[in-house]
Sequence to fold (332 residues):
Amino acid sequence: MNPVSSLVPLVLIASLAAQDVEASLTNTSRVGVFALITTQSIAANQTLTSPFSLGASVPGVASASLEAVFRNGTQLDDAGVNFTWSAQSAFLASAGTTATQLPLFGDHAYALRLSAAQPVQGDLRISFNGNAGLNGSATASITVGSATHDFAAGGSNNSATVPGLTVDGAGLTVTIRLRGEARSTLTDPGSFSAGLEVAFVPAGRAGCRVLSHESSCGQGGSLSGRAQRTGQLGADLTLTMGGGAANGFGATILSPLPDTLDLLGTGCKTFVTPVPVGLFQTDANGGATTVLPVPLGLDYSFYVHQLSAGLELTGLRWGTTNSLKVECTAGS
Fold:
Protein backbone atom coordinates (compact mmCIF):
# COMPACT_ATOMS: atom_id res chain seq x y z
CA MET A 1 0.00 0.00 0.00
CA ASN A 2 1.61 3.26 -1.11
CA PRO A 3 0.55 6.52 0.62
CA VAL A 4 -0.57 9.32 -1.66
CA SER A 5 -0.33 12.89 -0.34
CA SER A 6 -2.60 15.80 -1.21
CA LEU A 7 -3.29 19.10 0.57
CA VAL A 8 -6.85 19.66 1.78
CA PRO A 9 -8.35 22.17 4.23
CA LEU A 10 -8.80 20.48 7.61
CA VAL A 11 -8.45 21.52 11.23
CA LEU A 12 -7.43 18.90 13.76
CA ILE A 13 -6.16 20.34 17.04
CA ALA A 14 -5.23 23.88 18.15
CA SER A 15 -1.95 24.51 19.95
CA LEU A 16 -2.07 24.87 23.72
CA ALA A 17 0.44 24.85 26.53
CA ALA A 18 2.02 21.47 27.16
CA GLN A 19 -0.11 18.91 28.94
CA ASP A 20 1.91 15.80 29.73
CA VAL A 21 -0.45 12.82 29.88
CA GLU A 22 1.15 9.38 29.51
CA ALA A 23 -0.66 6.56 27.70
CA SER A 24 0.03 2.83 27.79
CA LEU A 25 -1.84 -0.04 26.13
CA THR A 26 -2.18 -3.67 27.30
CA ASN A 27 -4.11 -6.50 25.65
CA THR A 28 -6.11 -8.17 28.42
CA SER A 29 -7.11 -11.06 26.14
CA ARG A 30 -5.34 -13.07 23.48
CA VAL A 31 -5.64 -11.02 20.29
CA GLY A 32 -5.09 -12.00 16.69
CA VAL A 33 -6.20 -11.87 13.08
CA PHE A 34 -6.98 -14.70 10.69
CA ALA A 35 -7.42 -15.18 6.94
CA LEU A 36 -8.80 -18.63 6.16
CA ILE A 37 -6.31 -20.82 8.08
CA THR A 38 -3.48 -18.26 8.24
CA THR A 39 -3.19 -16.47 11.59
CA GLN A 40 -1.07 -14.08 13.63
CA SER A 41 -1.65 -13.53 17.33
CA ILE A 42 -0.08 -12.68 20.68
CA ALA A 43 -0.79 -13.97 24.17
CA ALA A 44 -2.80 -11.98 26.69
CA ASN A 45 -1.46 -9.37 29.11
CA GLN A 46 1.34 -7.91 26.99
CA THR A 47 2.46 -4.29 27.29
CA LEU A 48 2.23 -3.18 23.67
CA THR A 49 4.50 -0.80 21.78
CA SER A 50 3.29 1.77 19.25
CA PRO A 51 2.54 1.11 16.48
CA PHE A 52 1.23 -2.37 17.21
CA SER A 53 0.05 -4.37 14.20
CA LEU A 54 -1.11 -7.84 13.16
CA GLY A 55 -1.73 -9.23 9.68
CA ALA A 56 -2.69 -12.43 7.88
CA SER A 57 -3.22 -13.09 4.18
CA VAL A 58 -3.94 -15.74 1.57
CA PRO A 59 -3.35 -13.76 -1.65
CA GLY A 60 -6.41 -13.48 -3.82
CA VAL A 61 -8.62 -15.26 -1.27
CA ALA A 62 -8.61 -13.51 2.12
CA SER A 63 -6.73 -10.97 4.22
CA ALA A 64 -7.09 -9.31 7.61
CA SER A 65 -5.18 -6.63 9.49
CA LEU A 66 -5.26 -4.66 12.72
CA GLU A 67 -3.16 -1.68 13.81
CA ALA A 68 -3.08 0.37 17.00
CA VAL A 69 -1.23 3.68 17.29
CA PHE A 70 -1.20 5.27 20.73
CA ARG A 71 0.40 8.46 21.96
CA ASN A 72 1.19 10.51 25.02
CA GLY A 73 -0.35 13.95 25.44
CA THR A 74 2.06 16.83 24.88
CA GLN A 75 1.86 20.31 23.42
CA LEU A 76 1.39 18.75 19.98
CA ASP A 77 -1.13 16.05 20.73
CA ASP A 78 -3.83 14.76 23.02
CA ALA A 79 -3.38 11.35 24.63
CA GLY A 80 -5.07 8.21 23.39
CA VAL A 81 -5.17 5.41 20.84
CA ASN A 82 -6.31 4.91 17.25
CA PHE A 83 -7.33 1.44 16.06
CA THR A 84 -7.93 0.42 12.45
CA TRP A 85 -9.00 -3.11 11.54
CA SER A 86 -10.30 -4.62 8.31
CA ALA A 87 -10.73 -7.85 6.38
CA GLN A 88 -11.69 -9.12 2.94
CA SER A 89 -12.63 -12.63 1.86
CA ALA A 90 -13.85 -14.56 -1.19
CA PHE A 91 -14.79 -18.11 -2.24
CA LEU A 92 -16.44 -19.14 1.08
CA ALA A 93 -13.42 -17.98 3.11
CA SER A 94 -13.58 -16.16 6.44
CA ALA A 95 -11.22 -13.48 7.74
CA GLY A 96 -11.09 -10.92 10.52
CA THR A 97 -10.27 -10.47 14.20
CA THR A 98 -13.07 -12.51 15.78
CA ALA A 99 -14.05 -15.96 14.51
CA THR A 100 -17.65 -16.99 15.14
CA GLN A 101 -17.48 -20.60 13.90
CA LEU A 102 -13.91 -21.77 14.61
CA PRO A 103 -12.28 -21.33 18.05
CA LEU A 104 -9.47 -19.10 16.73
CA PHE A 105 -10.01 -15.79 18.50
CA GLY A 106 -12.72 -14.17 20.58
CA ASP A 107 -13.32 -10.46 21.00
CA HIS A 108 -10.19 -8.39 21.41
CA ALA A 109 -9.90 -6.75 24.85
CA TYR A 110 -7.49 -3.91 25.65
CA ALA A 111 -6.79 -1.62 28.61
CA LEU A 112 -5.75 1.95 27.83
CA ARG A 113 -4.18 3.56 30.92
CA LEU A 114 -3.81 7.34 31.14
CA SER A 115 -1.79 9.05 33.88
CA ALA A 116 -0.25 12.44 34.66
CA ALA A 117 2.19 13.76 37.27
CA GLN A 118 -0.09 16.76 37.85
CA PRO A 119 -3.91 16.59 37.60
CA VAL A 120 -5.22 17.40 34.11
CA GLN A 121 -8.94 17.99 33.53
CA GLY A 122 -10.62 17.21 30.23
CA ASP A 123 -12.99 15.01 28.25
CA LEU A 124 -12.71 11.53 26.79
CA ARG A 125 -13.76 11.74 23.14
CA ILE A 126 -14.69 8.55 21.26
CA SER A 127 -15.09 8.41 17.46
CA PHE A 128 -16.01 5.31 15.48
CA ASN A 129 -16.28 4.81 11.73
CA GLY A 130 -17.05 1.51 10.13
CA ASN A 131 -18.50 -0.08 7.03
CA ALA A 132 -19.77 -3.65 7.02
CA GLY A 133 -19.57 -4.10 3.25
CA LEU A 134 -20.95 -7.39 1.97
CA ASN A 135 -21.16 -10.25 4.51
CA GLY A 136 -19.12 -8.34 7.09
CA SER A 137 -19.52 -6.93 10.59
CA ALA A 138 -17.48 -4.77 12.95
CA THR A 139 -18.22 -3.52 16.47
CA ALA A 140 -16.47 -1.67 19.29
CA SER A 141 -17.31 -1.23 22.97
CA ILE A 142 -15.62 1.32 25.26
CA THR A 143 -16.03 1.44 29.04
CA VAL A 144 -14.77 4.17 31.37
CA GLY A 145 -15.97 4.08 34.96
CA SER A 146 -19.59 2.91 34.95
CA ALA A 147 -20.32 4.16 31.42
CA THR A 148 -20.18 1.87 28.37
CA HIS A 149 -20.54 3.06 24.76
CA ASP A 150 -21.27 0.55 21.98
CA PHE A 151 -20.75 1.08 18.25
CA ALA A 152 -21.42 -1.03 15.15
CA ALA A 153 -20.62 -0.63 11.46
CA GLY A 154 -23.75 0.59 9.74
CA GLY A 155 -25.20 2.01 12.95
CA SER A 156 -26.29 5.58 13.53
CA ASN A 157 -24.20 6.07 16.69
CA ASN A 158 -20.72 7.25 15.67
CA SER A 159 -19.34 9.23 18.60
CA ALA A 160 -19.52 9.86 22.32
CA THR A 161 -18.00 12.21 24.88
CA VAL A 162 -17.38 11.45 28.56
CA PRO A 163 -16.98 14.94 30.09
CA GLY A 164 -15.40 16.25 33.26
CA LEU A 165 -12.67 13.66 33.82
CA THR A 166 -9.43 14.15 35.73
CA VAL A 167 -6.21 12.31 34.88
CA ASP A 168 -3.62 12.25 37.66
CA GLY A 169 -1.00 10.01 39.23
CA ALA A 170 -3.62 7.41 40.19
CA GLY A 171 -4.38 6.92 36.49
CA LEU A 172 -7.53 6.44 34.45
CA THR A 173 -8.23 3.08 32.75
CA VAL A 174 -10.38 2.75 29.63
CA THR A 175 -11.50 -0.74 28.57
CA ILE A 176 -11.79 -1.34 24.81
CA ARG A 177 -13.32 -4.38 23.09
CA LEU A 178 -13.19 -4.93 19.32
CA ARG A 179 -14.80 -7.45 16.96
CA GLY A 180 -14.75 -7.91 13.20
CA GLU A 181 -15.37 -10.66 10.66
CA ALA A 182 -15.90 -11.01 6.91
CA ARG A 183 -17.53 -14.26 5.77
CA SER A 184 -17.94 -14.59 2.00
CA THR A 185 -20.36 -16.78 0.08
CA LEU A 186 -19.59 -18.69 -3.10
CA THR A 187 -20.72 -15.74 -5.23
CA ASP A 188 -20.39 -12.67 -2.98
CA PRO A 189 -17.21 -11.45 -1.24
CA GLY A 190 -17.09 -10.37 2.38
CA SER A 191 -15.50 -7.22 3.73
CA PHE A 192 -15.42 -4.75 6.59
CA SER A 193 -13.27 -1.80 7.59
CA ALA A 194 -13.39 0.07 10.89
CA GLY A 195 -11.59 2.82 12.73
CA LEU A 196 -11.77 3.84 16.39
CA GLU A 197 -10.22 6.76 18.23
CA VAL A 198 -10.27 7.05 22.01
CA ALA A 199 -8.62 10.30 23.12
CA PHE A 200 -8.32 12.26 26.33
CA VAL A 201 -8.57 15.93 25.32
CA PRO A 202 -7.54 18.55 27.93
CA ALA A 203 -10.13 21.26 28.55
CA GLY A 204 -10.18 23.91 25.80
CA ARG A 205 -8.22 21.91 23.23
CA ALA A 206 -9.47 21.56 19.68
CA GLY A 207 -10.22 18.19 18.16
CA CYS A 208 -11.29 16.39 15.01
CA ARG A 209 -13.21 13.17 14.59
CA VAL A 210 -13.91 10.91 11.61
CA LEU A 211 -17.46 9.52 11.47
CA SER A 212 -19.33 7.09 9.23
CA HIS A 213 -21.73 8.76 6.82
CA GLU A 214 -23.21 6.71 3.94
CA SER A 215 -22.78 3.08 2.89
CA SER A 216 -20.71 1.69 0.02
CA CYS A 217 -22.04 0.81 -3.43
CA GLY A 218 -21.22 -1.86 -5.98
CA GLN A 219 -17.90 -3.55 -5.25
CA GLY A 220 -16.14 -0.48 -3.94
CA GLY A 221 -15.11 -1.94 -0.60
CA SER A 222 -15.02 -0.15 2.75
CA LEU A 223 -13.28 2.98 4.02
CA SER A 224 -12.09 3.97 7.50
CA GLY A 225 -10.05 6.95 8.63
CA ARG A 226 -8.14 8.59 11.45
CA ALA A 227 -6.65 12.04 11.98
CA GLN A 228 -3.46 12.79 13.89
CA ARG A 229 -1.46 16.00 14.10
CA THR A 230 2.11 16.15 12.83
CA GLY A 231 3.04 19.53 14.29
CA GLN A 232 1.59 22.82 15.47
CA LEU A 233 0.37 23.75 11.98
CA GLY A 234 -0.59 20.45 10.39
CA ALA A 235 -2.07 16.98 10.71
CA ASP A 236 -2.40 13.77 8.68
CA LEU A 237 -5.74 12.29 7.71
CA THR A 238 -5.09 8.60 6.99
CA LEU A 239 -7.72 6.80 4.88
CA THR A 240 -7.67 2.99 4.71
CA MET A 241 -9.66 1.21 2.00
CA GLY A 242 -10.29 -2.53 2.07
CA GLY A 243 -12.10 -4.90 -0.29
CA GLY A 244 -11.91 -2.73 -3.41
CA ALA A 245 -10.83 -3.79 -6.88
CA ALA A 246 -7.62 -5.86 -6.68
CA ASN A 247 -4.55 -4.49 -8.50
CA GLY A 248 -6.63 -1.60 -9.78
CA PHE A 249 -6.80 2.16 -9.53
CA GLY A 250 -8.78 4.53 -7.38
CA ALA A 251 -9.49 8.18 -6.64
CA THR A 252 -10.11 10.07 -3.40
CA ILE A 253 -13.02 12.51 -3.59
CA LEU A 254 -13.79 15.25 -1.06
CA SER A 255 -16.83 17.51 -0.78
CA PRO A 256 -17.81 20.40 1.48
CA LEU A 257 -21.44 19.22 1.26
CA PRO A 258 -23.06 15.80 1.84
CA ASP A 259 -25.40 16.01 -1.18
CA THR A 260 -24.96 13.21 -3.75
CA LEU A 261 -26.08 12.39 -7.27
CA ASP A 262 -26.40 9.17 -9.27
CA LEU A 263 -23.17 8.14 -11.00
CA LEU A 264 -23.89 7.60 -14.70
CA GLY A 265 -27.13 5.74 -14.05
CA THR A 266 -25.41 2.94 -12.11
CA GLY A 267 -27.26 3.42 -8.82
CA CYS A 268 -23.98 4.32 -7.09
CA LYS A 269 -23.61 7.89 -5.92
CA THR A 270 -20.91 10.50 -5.71
CA PHE A 271 -20.90 14.04 -4.34
CA VAL A 272 -22.70 16.88 -6.14
CA THR A 273 -19.68 19.11 -5.40
CA PRO A 274 -16.74 16.69 -5.86
CA VAL A 275 -13.13 17.74 -5.28
CA PRO A 276 -10.68 15.03 -6.48
CA VAL A 277 -7.53 15.15 -4.35
CA GLY A 278 -5.46 12.21 -5.54
CA LEU A 279 -5.16 8.91 -7.41
CA PHE A 280 -3.83 5.63 -6.00
CA GLN A 281 -3.23 1.97 -6.83
CA THR A 282 -4.80 -0.93 -4.93
CA ASP A 283 -2.91 -4.04 -3.83
CA ALA A 284 -3.66 -7.72 -4.53
CA ASN A 285 -6.36 -7.69 -1.82
CA GLY A 286 -8.06 -4.51 -3.05
CA GLY A 287 -6.61 -2.36 -0.29
CA ALA A 288 -4.95 1.05 -0.28
CA THR A 289 -3.82 3.67 2.21
CA THR A 290 -4.03 7.37 1.39
CA VAL A 291 -2.52 10.08 3.59
CA LEU A 292 -3.78 13.65 3.22
CA PRO A 293 -1.68 16.35 4.94
CA VAL A 294 -4.04 18.98 6.35
CA PRO A 295 -3.64 22.42 7.98
CA LEU A 296 -4.97 23.49 11.39
CA GLY A 297 -6.97 26.51 12.55
CA LEU A 298 -10.73 26.65 11.76
CA ASP A 299 -14.13 25.16 12.65
CA TYR A 300 -15.69 23.17 9.79
CA SER A 301 -16.49 19.75 8.37
CA PHE A 302 -16.24 17.95 5.05
CA TYR A 303 -17.01 14.57 3.47
CA VAL A 304 -14.82 12.00 1.71
CA HIS A 305 -15.16 8.71 -0.17
CA GLN A 306 -13.14 6.72 -2.70
CA LEU A 307 -13.81 5.11 -6.07
CA SER A 308 -11.91 2.08 -7.37
CA ALA A 309 -11.92 -0.04 -10.52
CA GLY A 310 -9.90 -2.95 -11.88
CA LEU A 311 -10.04 -6.08 -14.05
CA GLU A 312 -10.36 -9.36 -12.15
CA LEU A 313 -10.99 -12.96 -13.24
CA THR A 314 -14.72 -12.37 -13.05
CA GLY A 315 -14.53 -9.20 -15.20
CA LEU A 316 -14.55 -5.50 -14.39
CA ARG A 317 -14.93 -4.77 -10.67
CA TRP A 318 -15.72 -1.23 -9.57
CA GLY A 319 -17.67 0.78 -7.06
CA THR A 320 -17.58 3.46 -4.38
CA THR A 321 -16.70 3.05 -0.72
CA ASN A 322 -18.81 4.29 2.14
CA SER A 323 -18.35 7.99 2.78
CA LEU A 324 -16.91 9.55 5.95
CA LYS A 325 -17.67 12.86 7.63
CA VAL A 326 -14.71 14.72 9.14
CA GLU A 327 -15.81 17.08 11.94
CA CYS A 328 -13.35 19.61 13.34
CA THR A 329 -13.49 22.17 16.15
CA ALA A 330 -10.88 24.86 16.80
CA GLY A 331 -11.20 24.80 20.59
CA SER A 332 -10.97 27.82 22.85
Remarks:
- The radius of gyration is 19 Å.
- The mean pLDDT is 80.
- The chain is about 0% helix and 60% strand.
